[in-house]
Amino acid sequence: MTMERRPQRLFIGGEWVEPDGGHYEVVDPATEESVGLAPEASRAQAFEAARAARTAFDAWSRTEPEERARILRAAAGVIAANAGPYADLARAESGATAATARALHIGVAAARFRRYAKGALEPVEQPLPPQLTPAGPLGRAGVVGSLAVRRPVGVVACVTSYNNPWANAAGKVAPALAMGNTVVVKPAPQDPLSVYRMAEALAEAGVPPGVVNVVSGSSPAVGEAVVGSPDVDMVSFTGSTAVGRRIAEVCGRDLKRPLMELGGKGAALVFDDADLGAATLGIGTTFSFASGQICTAPTRVLAQRGVYEELIARLAAHASRLKVGHPADPDTVVGPLISAAHRDRVESFIALGREEGARLVTGGVRPDSPRGFHVAPALFADCDGGMRIVREEIFGPVVAVLPFDTEDEAVALANGTDYGLIDYIFSADVPRAFRLASRLRTGGVAVNTVARNLEAPFGGFKHSGLGRDCGSFALHAYSELQSLTWPG
């Protein structure tokens, strides 16, 4: 993709604003060439964006739900109409394959705006049973009626991840706007240009000035300013657990509401009676989808002893068939990692796995291509629960396989990390799978699939996050409960 013709500007208060800090290059991880110039906001501009959102909040929160729905539907239409160029930009910025960029970046983003256009019209009142109140110090005897009503939180800081700049941002912005909040979006520094295109789509759809603001930067300073702004009431963050801890400290100090989707180290429990073909394809998404840069990936495989060796052989064969290359090539399945620094980190874990005594069955090396931040899918066998490659999030195309004998052993291994986002169970005994799901300390359990239901609550236990979003649960996440009481 050729470089964007004009340096990108910030979006603050409905205006495109020159950044105080100049610009920095956004690099295509497949070619190491420049995609465009992203704006470097100052702390003052981050505060200005939050103030613009605060100013716009009163009017937007009182806008009729039908009008909010109309704007969200219109934004979905603009995104769908520009799916081609938007997907090209997402591919160039993030390294996603062409098919992934179009279907799972742009397609999911448009779908989320359509979904929360409907969400804006969902009832916000929940009637409560009347209460009989006896006579006393507070008044005469009578019947008291009440409603629980969801109200917008206020100004939401949306701090997004690099692995899906469109869908992740849309998953925060759309439900927040549907509930009547205003937003300041701080995109990941690696691929922010897509989020500015989303802001353009919302502006074209008719979103009022200040309701949506976007500020970016290559250093943590801009995000810290957005999160710390006194005008921000809530922080919605997707990213690493380490950064999430720092944001949670700010939220705790200032009593801001946190919504955090953090790291993951998903376990796939594969029993002797499992369909190994389905398990192999599901686990193999760790190698292919986003090159393993996804928190929900089944990166730990717990294989019952009877299928342990066969599953390893199947996974190795599957990994060896996946083409690593330029994401624009339609035959490419595994694209690059997001940056040279992240490639180095993934490679350091691969080296660590060998040092820890795990057996590298296949992959883990750089392909011959002279350009791009590629690592061939890596499969480790003969692992144990104490190894760092088993316990820590690598965020790359690396899978570690461990054997187990009993159900209790499998559950102990699955629960043996600080993370708990999504685990997977592959077994022909579905009642057993559902029974074991109750013992897994994780926000989600998928049985005989790696698919997700986007209406189901999404979020993690332990160090994998706080709160839940997706479906109507996101509308609850971006709202406060107010009680209304009156005499009957």
TrEMBL record:
Keywords for this protein: Oxidoreductase
Gene3D superfamilies: Aldehyde Dehydrogenase, Chain A, domain 1 (3.40.605.10), Aldehyde Dehydrogenase, Chain A, domain 2 (3.40.309.10)
UniProt keyword RNA-binding, yes or no: no
Keyword Oxidoreductase: yes
Matching InterPro entries: Ald_DH/histidinol_DH, Ald_DH_C, Ald_DH_N, Aldehyde_DH_dom
Domain named Aldehyde dehydrogenase: residues: 16-483
Top-rank taxon: Bacteria
Similarity section: Belongs to the aldehyde dehydrogenase family.
Entry protein name: Aldehyde dehydrogenase
Lineage: Bacteria, Bacillati, Actinomycetota, Actinomycetes, Kitasatosporales
GO MF annotations in UniProt: oxidoreductase activity, acting on the aldehyde or oxo group of donors, NAD or NADP as acceptor
